[in-house]
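Researcher: Batch entry, complex prediction.
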Amino acid sequence: MNIAPQNGKLSFDECWELLAVSVVGRLALVVDGHPEIFPVNFVIERRNIVFRTAAGTKFWEAAKETAAAFEIDGYDARTGEAWSVTARGSTEIIDSTEEQAAADALGLEPWEPGPKEHYVRVAPKVLTGRRFKVAAPDIWNTRLEDKRRALFE
Amino acid sequence: MTNVQPTEASQHSVEHLDSGQCWGLLRQVSVGRLAVWADDHPDIFPLNYTVDHGTLVFRTGEGTKLGGALGETPVALEADGVDAETGMAWSVVVKGKAAALKGTEEILDSASLYLFPWQAGQKDHFIRITPDSITGRRFKVTAPLTWWTQLSGAVKASPE
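Model: Structure tokens for the complex:
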């Protein structure tokens, strides 16, 4: 449609569908009173966001559970709309090798090279999404030479 | 030094960027994600920013993003990108305090920075992030084939 509702909310199902087809998200958490944010690639395993990380090994070893926010976004070139989905919950280390294998079987591949020792799960307690008209779509097209951006058609 | 950035753990072909490189990359894109502390939990928002003399400026309306950004807790803004042809990805994180721009002069200065809101609608506040730290890294995306085919399926050719 031509006129998108501003701050158009996405349904719960739409949020999960977008999570299911996305590969990279950004995780935010607070460490020692400072927000940290980093990109991770992830899979959805039984409605959990699962990723592997070596980032901050000490952190993940010490803090088994901490409040986190996870966000994915993208741009739909066909409609000229951007979307954003945010999940909030707590991080949890996955110790079980069965569950680690289940995540691997879903194609969980760390984005960065290097050892990824920790499997982390975030079970969303709050899941919200919105779709909105982008004021200047060019910023999405030019921001990266990233084919992913064109794939949500 | 941060706790979460991979420093020693992922030494293999992860290039740590100096601040000059980081700023260069920050200028290449204009969408970032802002992590803030909102009441009792971290939250995260995509936003459109611009680089202004060693600081980042973004526009926002009232709401969580503003409230969280201006609280006691510093904020973190991350921008990243992937070059589809080389498979090189980068990620830059800026951390610091955020403060609203005050005074017409300061706002006019920043308005000349080609700063536009990412999302249509009222955007009445200009927020400036003054970095305490800026860190960045660049790395080859592991298994680009897997990476790309997850979304592109059989239709798209491999980038290699």
